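Our consortium's second objective concerns turning raw sequence data into structural hypotheses that experimental partners can test. To show how far this objective has progressed, the report includes one record in full. It was chosen at random from the queue rather than selected for favorable results. The single chain below, 172 residues long, was entered without modification.
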Amino acid sequence: MAFIPSKHNSLATDLWPPPHSEKISARAGPHDLQRWERYPCELEDMCKWALVAKDKSTMDKSRENIIVYRNPPDCTSNVLYPVSVHLYGCLQNFTVGKFGNWDGNPFTAKRAIQSLTLTSGGHREAWRNQLEALNVASAFASRTLQIPLHRAHFPSQLYFQRKVFQQVAVVS
């Protein structure tokens, strides 16, 4: 997983209060970050660090493009490693149980999701730093896929969701 830096610190711990920054440092471990673990905060650097690939295994065509490490941690294989990023904030809402928000009705199963919402928790500078970094990835994907990005976005919260169930074709 990659860590989003600040201008003065590779883990952005200078933007968080001590209890938070200590946990971030502990998560990173005692070693210096390797190149692939250092999230780029400039578009030019992102182009050198990542690329957009098609995930042929996904059935949801709206999610077939993924950002992968250009120089993954294991360079000996032809495996693509999707970029994953450490994000920090305060949980506002979450529905992460095994079946998410599914009500048990078979007809609503295809709409069942797991979700969570992160907020700044009052740490605006640290939050904005993360959002600016995520916007670099958005701009990178937009330019690579030639899909217009209407504007940089600085929301007060980040909402994540995923489907609980995947539809499968019946084989006879």
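The partners drew two points from this record. Residues 52 and 144 are 7 Å apart (CA to CA). The first helix runs from residue 18 to 28. Both points have been shared with the crystallography group to help prioritize constructs.
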